[in-house]
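Predict structure. Chain length: 87.
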Amino acid sequence: MEKFIPLCPDFVVEVLSPSDGLRQTKAKMEEYMENGARLGWLIDPQRKQVFVYRPQQAVEVLDNPTTLSGDPELAGYVLDLDPVWRP
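Prediction complete.
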């Protein structure tokens, strides 16, 4: 394949690595939202923060949450963040 398929996922998860820039990754998440994603989680393990993206809503910033709920977009889905926060 020479190019990507022109579609956008409904749900996006980005886990920030030490080599990723927060500003660039936030811009990437905004682009997903602008292109039709319904839910996005940007997880920053170093700061223990999660940025929750939804279309036409302000980004929600969660400090050191233990879990993330996908409701209502992913009804019943809950992500345990304990393994993510461990060094």
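Summary: The chain has two helices and six strands.
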